[in-house]
Amino acid sequence: MKRHAGLAALAALAFSALGGGALAAEHVTNGGFEATLLPASGEFGGDFPSQQVTGWTTNGYNFVFRSGEADSGGGNGSFGNLQLWGPDNGSANGLPDSSPAGGNFIASDPVFIHDSIRQDINDLTIGKTYNLSFYWAGAQQFGFSGDTFEGWQVSLGGETHSTSTVNVPDHGFSGWQLATMSFTATAASETLAFLSTGGPTGLPPFALLDGVSLTDVTGGGVPEPAAWALMILGLGASGAALRRRRAAAA
After folding, report:
1. CATH no., domain 25-217
2. Would you list the domain boundaries of the chain?
3. How far is residue 64's CA from residue 40's CA, in Å, rounded to a whole number?
């Protein structure tokens, strides 16, 4: 009995070494932009109060679109209604109702009243590495024509990374893609900021954003080789014990 208990403990230790069952802590509030004070899609920066999307601040020409409204009804802003080109307003570019994260998403103009979308992260550990992931895409404002390009510049504190740049054809949409980045905290409280990039001026490009998540590296990632070896040893020992018990019973 003691031998079997020891083998079970070894298997459990291996599972623990692989991070089995551990959930990485989430540090971003409202990373899906679902919680808003806006009654419908619309601008939440610029001439409007900048805290209309819970947890996030901006003073730029940045919009939050509810599912299905970006190319159908659009959103109201300080310069009138704004839509993105999509199937519902005449462009068969494949713009879906929402991002892969579902629900609301952000659209940011990188060339007009430009400002980041940001949030203070207050529970960081100095020297610790954190994984950031988010969905992003490129699109164009409805009513304008011409090729555009878009991307994102992302910073946590003083560390900055950039996505690739997507080239979007006239009345186009780039398709959603997942970005992942790693940041090392240099303070317990740092600002996470997304600054859209793109152009050209006058053909309004829009960079899209959704599903923002910032988690601890520990508890996730690829297990070390020693952890794999420990798991294999534990499972092998448990299997051998089970075979011996069956042989004894026979």
Report:
1. 2.60.120.260
2. 25-217
3. 9
CA distance 17 to 115: 43
C-alpha Rg value of the chain to the nearest Å: 24
Token readout for 234 is 């534990």
Contact yes or no for 19/220 (Cβ under 8 A):
yes
Angle, CA 111 vertex, CA 108 and CA 117 arms, to 5°: 35
**Using CA atoms, how far apart are residues 44 and 96, in angstroms rounded to an integer?**
22
pLDDT at 236: 55
Give pLDDT tens digits for 135-187. 999 999 999 999 999 999 999 999 999 999 999 999 999 999 999 999 999 99
Give the separation between CA 83 and CA 210, rounded to whole angstroms. 17
Alpha helices in the chain (DSSP H): 2-17, 225-249
**Terminal-to-terminal C-alpha distance of the chain:** 19
Neighbouring residues of 16: CB distance < 8 A, sequence distance ≥ 6: none
What gap in Å lies between CA 41 and CA 202, rounded to an integer? 23
DSSP 89: G
Q: Which residues pair with 190 in a beta bridge?
A: 121
Task: Say whether pLDDT at 4 is over 80.
Answer: no
Q: How many helices (H) and strands (E) does the chain have?
A: 2, 13
* Cβ(106)–Cβ(173) below 8 Å: no
Tokens 């679109």 sit on residue = 65
The pLDDT tens digits for 47-93 are 888 889 999 999 999 999 999 999 999 999 999 999 999 999 999 99
Helix (H, G, I), strand (E, B) or coil at 218: coil
